Structures are given as C-alpha cells and as structure tokens.
From TrEMBL:
SUPFAM superfamilies, A to Z: Composite domain of metallo-dependent hydrolases, Metallo-dependent hydrolases
Residue ranges of every copy of the Amidohydrolase-related domain listed in the record: 86-435
Pfam family, one: Amidohydro_1
Listed PANTHER family: ALPHA-D-RIBOSE 1-METHYLPHOSPHONATE 5-TRIPHOSPHATE DIPHOSPHATASE
Name the record gives this protein: Amidohydrolase family protein
Domain of life: Bacteria
Species, as recorded: Candidatus Seongchinamella marina
Regions that span the bilayer: none
Cited InterPro entries: Amidohydro-rel, DNase_TatD-rel_CS, Metal-dep_hydrolase_composite, Metal_Hydrolase, Metallo-dep_Hydrolase, OTAase-like
Alphabetized CDD domains for the sequence: Met_dep_hydrolase_A (cd01299)
Amino acid sequence: MQKTACLIGLFSTLMLACSNELRSNESANTTEEALLIHCGSLINGLDEQVRTRQIVTIKSGRITGIEPASDTTGTATLDLQEYTCLPGMIDTHVHLDMYPEDAEDYRIYLKRTPEDTRAIALDNARITLEAGFTSVRHIGSYLAWVDRDTKASIESGQAIGPRIQVAGFYLTIPHGGGDLTIPGVDDDDIPDYYRMGVARGPEAYREKTQELIDGGAEVIKVIASGAVFGFGGKVTEPEMSEEEIRAVVEIAHAAGRRVTAHAHGARSIKQAIRAGVDSIEHASLADPEAIAMAVQEQVAFSMDVYNGDYTAEVGAINNWPQEFMEKNEQTTEAQRLVFEKAVIAGVSILYGTDAGVAPHGGNGRQFRIMVERGMNAMQAIQSATSLAAVHMGWQDDIGALEAGRYGDLVAVKGNPLKDITLLESIDVVVKGGKIILPKCAALLPQECLAAPGR
C-alpha cells in the first residue's frame, strides 16, 4: 500500500536512507548515517504530555536524542511536521503462522508442509510491521519453533518483520486447547511437530518447559482452559491442573522466563494466578475474585477484545464450525464486560489482539474497542507501548521514544488522542532507524520495486 506522494515532501536524504535500507535487504544491521525526524506532535509512550515540534535523532539503530525543533536545528531527513509520532507499537498476542480462514477446516494443517507454514509466518510478519507493530510477543503455535525460525530470518536480513519474543510451542494437555485435534482424524495421522507441547503431569511439564528454554523460548505459554477455536474443550473449564502450571512456572522463573496462561474461565484464571503466572491471555469470564487476585498479584491481562466481531461476521458467512461460533458468542461480550471491570479495578492490561484469529495487519482495530469500553486514548496507547514493553522485560529497548531505545517510531496524520481509529492505518513506520513506510518504490528508480522483501 503506497501513501499518496509518500505522504510528504521527503528530501533527497530520505531517498538515500531508503536506498541504504533496500541495499541492506532490510537487515537488522544499521547504517551509521543519522536519521533526523521532525515530529509535529510527539507521544513518547511514557507520560501524559504531548510534545510539539520535536526532532528525534536515530543513529546505529537507536535513538540518540529528542529535542525541541528550532530554526537552528537544520533540515530533518524525515519531515513529519503535520503528523503525530508515537513509539513503534507492540502486540503481545499474535500467531504469525495462522490465517483466520484456517478455522474453516483444520485439515488444512495436514496439507501444509513446515516450509509452507514458515512462508505464511514470514508474510504475516511483513504485514504486521507495515501496520505499525514493530514488536510482537508470538504466543505459541501448533508448528513448533515457527516463531524462532521467523525471528532468525528477520534478524539475518532475509526478511522484514517486527522484533519477536519467542514462545516455541504451546504447553497443553492431550486434546486440549493447544493440541491440534481434528474431528475424524486419528492422532497417529497428525505429525509430531504439531504436538510437541502435549503432556500430562507436573514432571512431564517440567521437562517440556526445560526443552522450551533450551530451544530459545523467551516466554512460556500454558493452555489452562478450553479454547474458542479448539474442538471438544469448554472455555469455562480448566484443562491443565494448578500443580501442572506451578511446575511450569518453577522451571521458567528459575531460568528468568515469564509464563502466560491462556485462560477464559474464572476457575482456570484463578488456578493460573495461584500457580504464579505473570499474565493471563483472554480472561474472558473472569469473576470479581479473579480480577482482585490479578491486581493483588500484579498479573497482567492481555485481552483480545476486537476479534469476536470479526469471527461473528466472517465465520457466519463462511460456515465456520458451529462449536467455534457458539464459544465465540459465549465469550465476546462477556470479555468486554470483564475488560470494563478490569480497567476500573486497575489491572495491568496489555495490548494483545490474537492476530491470526483476525487478519494480520488489522492489529490496530482493537484500540477503538478499548476506548469504547473504558480506557482513555492515552491508556490504550501505553498498553501497546511502554506497558507492554515492561511486561515483556524489553523496556530498555522498545516501548517508548526515549534516548537509548531502538529507533522504532510510527506516525499518523492527525491526533490519535482525539480519534483513536487513526491507529488502524499507520502512515509512517520506522524500525531501528530504517524507513519501512512510506515504501521506497514511490521515491526511487524502478530497481527499488524489485528489492528483496517488497
């Protein structure tokens, strides 16, 4: 998607920056040339203040300074005087290896090779970055280690995409919410690489957790309750036991890894909190006690309050399994009511969309729901920037426009504090000082169109 005239009168120095970006094949390596961005307004992700006329300087991939623009500042290489600049956004719950339409028939997984799935993840990674989400927490997948492989491709410069925090694979009971169970298909016909996290009993989960850590997992995901998009399980009922979750937490925390629990039902949420997890995914049916426990134990909720609308509309048109549709109806409005109560109670709420259930690239559509259901716009922005970064343990590198952090910046024309829906379509994306949007092809000669990753 190309923005009209690349949005703004970019100078020849921007052309050079784009050219350098393309010649390096979007690699994580950075050039020594400084990128100066003149922001009309700036939200830094950390405080309530909106600063005007700021120059952000990025060199060797990191922000080296932010200072008021003045007549003596010199010409910026990226003129965003009519735009609001924000930190690169963070989605704490994505599945890059999934398409929403996979829900129509899970037998699609038996037709895909691991190479097919890795290609899907790479394409969705590019789309996610171009949507302004420069960092994500990839929170599990059926195919083991697809997130690790995707991250390696991005960091080596073979592909473009966000910074990825890796989970490796789900930890789940047999036929649980993280096990690939397909009606009419025998377990023996499902490849082992889809079921690497299936276990039972505390000791087995200790071993699986250590396997994840040894393989490079940076966060551990347990499936504590039934899943909306899983056959057989009930969202109201626990799956892993409290003792099994505690075994995972003990190994993970000893290795400095955080644990997040997929949990819809109130009982499973409370079991996971008592077991020591760091965050809850979905939290759709949390009761007042579960919310109070989350506040007291400083457990964050990552609540995907948008995608129920997408599932209700598109799933009905395409005849998705009735079981999935019923559980989606059971959780969508209930989750939004829990969200309202959690905001009032002071639960730390992270921006997490479950992208893959809804389309990648539409990650920003959730902001509107969060604001409609009780957050102010700045709270919603911080949930997708500094708060998410702190919870991921990456607060020294991402989540704010601040000297020393990566030069990850997005911009929109207008004021997202007055119209949060502006964040559904990002105009400018910079990752590590590299300009991702507007695309260089609008500025440079024809060979730009053929550049890798475009």
